[in-house]
C-alpha cells in the first residue's frame, strides 16, 4: 500500500510540470482572545480562563487541464494565561490529488491526511478544541484509487472503480495509560459495472461485481464479495418484465452475529416481477417477489424513482442482504430559494470504536455495604482460601471485573435517517438538519443510538457586516452503561468586514454537557474577540468587491 501510494504521488507530481496550470497559495490567519467560565458538579469545578488562540491554514492548490492538487497545513495553538505551563499545539496536514490520464474517462487519484483525533469525536460527543477531555490519538490515512468509464457506446456501458485505503491510529504518550490498545485497518475495494444503465432505453440491464477486503491489525481479516444483476424487458406500453438477484459471501476469522464463526457466510437471492417505466423522464417503479435460497425465505423487493411537478423527486429501494432486509430512500424538493430532503439508508462501514473489554481478575468473598448491596470493593472483599469455600451468613462470592478500553476498527451496520432544509436569499440564509442513527457492531452486541440536530443561519445586515447563529444538539445512548450524554451548543457571532481581505468578529457561546457519568458533565460560557485575515489574490473565502469580479 505504501509503495503504491508513492507511485501515484510521483505520477501526479511528474505530470504537473508537463501541463500548463495555475498555482494558488492562500494562507489564512485567525487570532482570537477567549474569556471562558467553566462550571461542573464533578469535583466542584469552577474555572475562569483567558485563552489566546492562533489558527493558521496554509493552502497550496495547483489546477491544470490534467492535474488537480491541494495541500493544506493547519496549525492550532492555545495558550492559557492562568496556567503558564499549559499550551496546546497541533499540526495537521492533508493532501488530495488527481490525474486525468485519458480524456476524462480514466483518472487516478491519491490522498493523505495526518490529523489529531479527539476523544470526544470517537465517543460521539461535540468537538471542542479548547476544552476537549484529551487528544490521545493521531490518525494517518492514505488512499489511492483509479476510475475508468467507457465512452458512450450504446447499448453498452462500462465502468470500473478501484481504491486502497490505509488507516493507522497511534496513541500519544499521555493517553497510553487510559487505553489498552489502538489498531488500524486496510481497506481494498473494487467495483465493476457492465450493462445498459439508461432507463430510457427499451431494454435495460446491469451486472455489478463488488470486492471489499478489510485487513485489521489485531482482529483478523474480513472479505466481502458480491454480484448483483438487474434486467428489464419491455412487454406492453411501458410495462416491463423484471429480473434481479444477488450473490454475496462474507469470510471472517471472528464470530459475527450471523450465526457462523469461521466458515464463509453466503447469501443468494433471486427475484422476478413487473416494472412501469416512464422513458422520457427516466422514471420507473419496480416490484419483485424475492426468494432467499440460503434461509429459504420470501420477501418483496421495491425499486422506484419518480419526479413530481419538476421540483419533487422520490427514490426508494428495498431488498435483501446478508444481514436481513435492507432499505434506502429519499424524498426531495428543489425550489428557487428552498431545498428540502428526507432520506434513509442502511450500509456496512468500518469505523473506530472504543468498546469496553471486560476481564475477570478472580472471585472474592464479599460483605454487603450499608445498603445491603453486593459488589467488589477491596474494603469489603477478601481472597477466598484454596480449596472448598464455605460462606458465612451474609457473605457472597463476587467476581472482580476490570475494564479496558481498546480503540479498535469494527464492522458496523448503520441505519440512518436524515431531514435537511436549506434556504438562501440575499439577506438571510440557513441550513437546518436533523439526523437519527443506529449503529450496530456486527461482531458483538454493542449498539449506539445518536440523535443530532444542527442549525446555521446567516443574516447579512449590510455590505460589510453579518450575524451568524449556530445551534447544535446531540443525544448519544448505548445498550450498556458507558456514559449516555446530551450535548447542547448555542453560539451567536457578529462579523465586520474591514476590507476584502480581513474581518473582525465578536462571539458569545454556551455549551452544556449532561451525562450519566459525572466526569463528563460541565457548562462553558465563552466570549471571543478575534481577527481573521485572508492572504492571496484568489482566496476561496475572500469577499469580492461589490459589482467587481475578483482576480
Show the helix and strand layout.
Layout: H1 2-15, E1 21-25, E2 28-40, E3 45-64, E4 67-80, E5 87-102, E6 106-117, H2 119-123, E7 137-149, E8 157-171, E9 185-196, E10 204-216, E11 220-236, E12 239-252, E13 265-278, E14 283-292, E15 297-308, E16 312-321, E17 324-334, E18 338-354, E19 357-366, E20 381-382, E21 396-404, E22 407-424, E23 428-441, E24 447-460, E25 465-478, E26 485-497, E27 502-515, E28 522-534
Antiparallel strand pairs: 1-3, 2-3, 2-28, 3-4, 4-5, 5-6, 6-7, 7-8, 8-9, 9-10, 10-11, 11-12, 12-13, 13-14, 14-15, 15-16, 16-17, 17-18, 18-22, 19-20, 19-21, 22-23, 23-24, 24-25, 25-26, 26-27, 27-28
Computed CA radius of gyration, to the nearest angstrom: 28 Å
Distance between the termini: 41 Å
Give, in order, the helices and strands.
HEEEEEEHEEEEEEEEEEEEEEEEEEEEEE
Question: Helicity, in percent?
Answer: under 10%
Number of strands: 28
Structure description:
This protein is mainly beta. Among the domains are: 357-404, no CATH class; 407-534. It has two helices and 28 strands. The protein has helices at residues 2-15, 119-123, and strands spanning 21-25, 28-40, 45-64, 67-80, 87-102, 106-117, 137-149, 157-171, 185-196, 204-216, 220-236, 239-252, 265-278, 283-292, 297-308, 312-321, 324-334, 338-354, 357-366, 381-382, 396-404, 407-424, 428-441, 447-460, 465-478, 485-497, 502-515, 522-534. The strands form two sheets. The protein has a 24-stranded antiparallel beta barrel. The longest helix is centred in the N-terminal third of the chain and has 14 residues, at 2-15. Residues 255-261 and 545-551 have low confidence and may be disordered.
Amino acid at each position: 500500500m505504501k509503495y503504491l501510494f508513492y507511485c501515484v504521488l510521483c505520477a501526479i507530481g511528474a505530470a504537473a510540470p508537463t501541463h500548463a496550470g495555475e498555482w494558488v497559495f492562500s494562507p489564512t490567519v485567525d487570532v482570537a482572545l477567549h474569556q471562558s467560565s467553566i462550571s461542573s458538579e464533578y469535583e466542584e469545578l469552577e474555572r475562569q480562563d483567558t485563552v489566546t488562540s492562533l489558527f493558521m491554514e496554509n493552502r497550496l492548490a495547483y489546477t491544470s487541464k490534467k492535474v488537480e492538487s491541494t495541500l493544506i497545513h493547519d496549525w492550532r495553538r492555545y495558550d492559557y494565561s492562568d496556567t503558564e505551563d499549559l499550551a496546546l499545539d497541533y499540526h495537521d496536514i492533508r493532501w488530495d490529488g488527481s490525474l486525468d490520464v485519458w480524456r476524462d474517462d480514466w483518472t487516478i487519484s491519491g490522498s493523505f491526511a495526518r490529523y489529531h483525533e479527539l476523544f470526544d469525536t470517537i465517543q460521539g460527543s461535540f468537538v471542542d478544541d479548547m476544552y476537549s477531555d484529551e487528544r490521545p490519538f493521531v490518525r494517518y490515512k492514505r488512499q489511492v484509487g483509479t476510475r475508468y468509464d467507457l465512452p458512450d457506446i450504446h447499448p453498452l456501458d462500462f465502468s470500473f472503480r478501484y481504491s486502497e485505503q490505509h488507516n493507522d491510529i497511534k496513541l500519544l504518550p499521555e493517553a497510553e495509560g487510559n487505553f489498552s490498545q489502538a489498531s488500524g485497518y486496510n481497506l481494498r475495494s473494487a467495483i465493476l459495472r457492465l450493462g445498459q444503465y439508461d432507463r430510457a432505453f427499451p431494454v435495460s440491464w446491469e451486472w455489478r461485481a463488488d470486492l471489499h477486503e478489510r485487513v485489521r491489525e489485531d482482529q483478523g481479516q474480513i472479505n466481502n464479495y458480491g454480484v448483483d444483476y438487474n434486467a428489464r424487458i419491455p412487454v406492453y406500453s411501458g410495462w416491463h418484465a423484471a429480473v434481479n438477484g444477488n450473490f454475496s459471501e462474507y469470510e471472517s476469522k471472528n464470530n459475527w452475529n450471523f450465526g457462523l464463526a469461521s466458515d464463509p457466510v453466503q447469501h443468494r437471492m433471486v427475484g422476478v416481477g413487473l416494472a412501469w417505466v416512464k422513458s422520457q423522464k427516466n422514471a420507473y417503479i419496480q416490484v419483485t417477489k424475492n426468494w432467499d435460497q440460503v434461509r429459504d425465505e420470501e420477501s418483496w423487493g421495491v425499486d422506484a424513482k419518480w419526479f413530481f411537478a419538476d421540483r419533487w423527486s422520490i427514490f426508494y429501494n428495498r431488498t435483501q442482504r446478508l444481514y436481513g432486509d435492507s432499505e434506502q430512500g429519499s424524498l426531495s424538493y428543489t425550489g428557487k430559494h428552498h431545498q428540502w430532503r428526507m432520506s434513509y439508508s442502511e450500509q456496512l462501514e468500518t469505523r473506530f470504536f472504543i468498546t469496553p473489554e471486560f476481564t475477570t481478575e478472580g472471585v472474592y468473598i464479599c460483605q454487603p455495604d450499608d445498603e445491603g448491596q453486593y459488589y467488589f470493593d477491596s474494603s469489603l472483599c477478601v481472597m477466598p482460601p484454596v480449596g472448598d469455600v464455605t460462606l458465612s451468613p451474609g457473605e457472597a462470592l463476587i467476581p472482580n471485573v476490570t475494564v479496558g478500553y481498546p480503540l479498535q476498527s469494527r464492522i458496523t451496520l448503520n441505519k440512518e435517517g436524515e431531514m435537511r432544509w436549506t434556504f438562501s436569499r440575499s439577506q438571510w440564509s440557513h441550513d437546518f438538519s436533523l439526523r437519527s442513527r443506529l449503529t450496530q457492531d456486527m461482531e458483538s452486541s454493542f449498539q449506539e443510538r445518536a440523535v443530532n440536530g444542527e442549525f446555521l443561519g446567516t443574516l447579512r445586515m449590510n455590505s460589510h457586516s453579518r450575524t451568524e447563529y449556530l445551534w447544535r444538539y446531540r443525544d448519544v445512548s448505548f445498550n450498556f452503561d458507558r456514559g449516555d450524554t446530551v450535548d447542547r451548543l448555542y453560539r451567536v457571532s457578529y462579523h465586520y468586514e474591514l476590507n476584502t481581505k480581513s474581518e473582525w468578529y465578536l462571539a458569545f457561546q454556551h455549551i452544556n454537557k449532561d451525562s450519566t457519568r459525572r466526569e463528563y458533565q460541565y457548562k462553558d460560557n465563552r466570549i471571543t474577540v478575534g481577527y481573521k485575515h485572508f492572504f492571496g489574490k484568489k482566496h476561496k473565502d475572500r469577499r469580492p468587491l461589490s459589482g467587481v469580479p475578483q482576480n
